[in-house]
Every structure is written in C-alpha cells, then in structure tokens.
C-alpha cells in the first residue's frame, strides 16, 4: 500500500513511527511492530499542546482530520468492562446509548484518568487505539475508518501519529460501528 497523507499533521515533519520510539508509549511501539508500520508517521509536539483543539490550532492540522480515542468503562455483575472508541474530533462518542448497549452495562462512562493511564500504559491526552489491551473491544466510527489518514495520539503527550483509517479498522478487536459518533 502507498504511504498515507502525513500532511494531516499540518506544519509538523513526520517520520516513520518506528524511527522515533522515544515519541511512542511502550505498548504503542510493541503493537506497531506487528502492523504495516511504514504507513504510520509520527511527529514531535509540545506536550502542553497535546489536547486536540490546541494541537490543531498551533500546528495547522485540520480538526476534521483528527480523531480522539476515549476509554469507556462500565460494570456488569460486579465485573468492570472496558472498551475504546475512536471518533473524529468534530463528533462525540455516543457513550450513553450505543456504547452502553454494546458494552452490555447498566451505566457506561469515561474511565477515570488514573484508571485509563494504568490499564493502557499510555499518558492521559495521548491514549491511542494502537497498543490497547488485546481483550478490549475497539469501536471505530465510519468517518475514521474511511479517512485516508487521521491524527491520533502516540501514547505520549509529546508525539502525534498520522494513521490511515483502514489500518485502524484492521486492528485486533476493532469493529466499525455505524452509529458510534454523533
């Protein structure tokens, strides 16, 4: 396959992600070794600008080409269940409807920051679908899956990835969910 449009990173210069492991959380680096990593670019950013709006504004990256990965949790019969949702930054995951039903819990909510960091091995504000725990469902909005490339976290606050949507949709436990984003 051809290299994706790393231009979604705006004014930043991207390199193949595995060329800069210092910009990746450990689980992300491990997972990339199992993927077609040449299609994934990484760029270094100011960690104070890792939040999507600040990143896009500062680096001239189009907001509609950014995707957010949110960790959702809920309990059923006393068992805590996690899932991850990836939606375009211009939308929100339907946590109280679609996610709650798919996770099969009475109440679903964003996982507390400390829990999300502990269970993913990634930095808050940089959590990414690449390298998540293998037993989690990963739900991806169609707009993300169909994108030639989107900007996502690198597992750290000092890097951003440019990843083709089809690569995200092919991750283990990934499924494209038509009504995930609103």
What would you note in describing this structure?
This is Prolyl-tRNA editing enzyme YbaK/EbsC (Cys-tRNA(Pro) deacylase). Pfam families: tRNA_edit. It comes from Pseudonocardia parietis. The structure is a single chain. β3 and β4 form a beta hairpin. It is built from 6 helices and 9 strands; from the N terminus they run βαβαββαβαβαββαβ. The longest helix has 9 residues. It has one domain: YbaK/aminoacyl-tRNA synthetase-associated domain (YbaK protein). The model has no long low-confidence stretch (mean pLDDT about 95). The N and C termini lie far apart (about 30 Å). The chain is of the alpha+beta class. The strands form 2 sheets. Strands 5-3-4-6-9 form a 5-stranded mixed β-sheet. A 4-stranded antiparallel β-sheet has the order 1-2-8-7.
> Which regions are unreliable across 5 or more consecutive residues at pLDDT < 50?
none
* Intertermini distance: 31 Å
Main beta sheet strand tally, sense and closure:
5 strands, mixed
String of helices and strands: EHEHEEHEHEHEEHE
Residues in β-strands, percent? 15-25%
Number of DSSP strand runs: 9
Q: Average pLDDT across residues?
A: 95
Specify the helix fraction band: 10-25%
Can you list the strand order of the major beta sheet?
5-3-4-6-9
């Amino acid at each position: 396959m051809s290299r994706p449009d790393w231009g979604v990173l705006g004014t930043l210069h991207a390199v193949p992600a595995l060329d800069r492991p210092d910009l990746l959380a450990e689980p992300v680096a491990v997972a990339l070794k199992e993927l077609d990593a040449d299609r994934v670019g990484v760029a270094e950013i100011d960690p104070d600008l890792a939040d999507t709006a600040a990143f896009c504004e500062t680096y001239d990256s189009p907001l509609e080409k950014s995707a957010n990965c949110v960790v959702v949790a809920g309990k059923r019969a006393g068992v805590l269940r996690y899932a991850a949702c990836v939606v375009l930054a211009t939308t929100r995951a339907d946590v109280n409807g679609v996610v709650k039903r798919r996770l099969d819990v009475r109440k679903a909510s964003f996982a507390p920051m400390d829990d999300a960091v502990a269970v993913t091995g990634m930095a808050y504000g940089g959590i990414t679908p690449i390298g998540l725990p293998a037993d989690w469902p990963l739900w991806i909005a169609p707009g993300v899956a169909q994108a030639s490339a989107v900007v996502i976290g690198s597992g750290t606050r000092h890097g951003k990835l440019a990843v083709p949507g089809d690569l995200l949709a092919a991750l283990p436990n990934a499924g494209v969910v038509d009504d995930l984003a609103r």
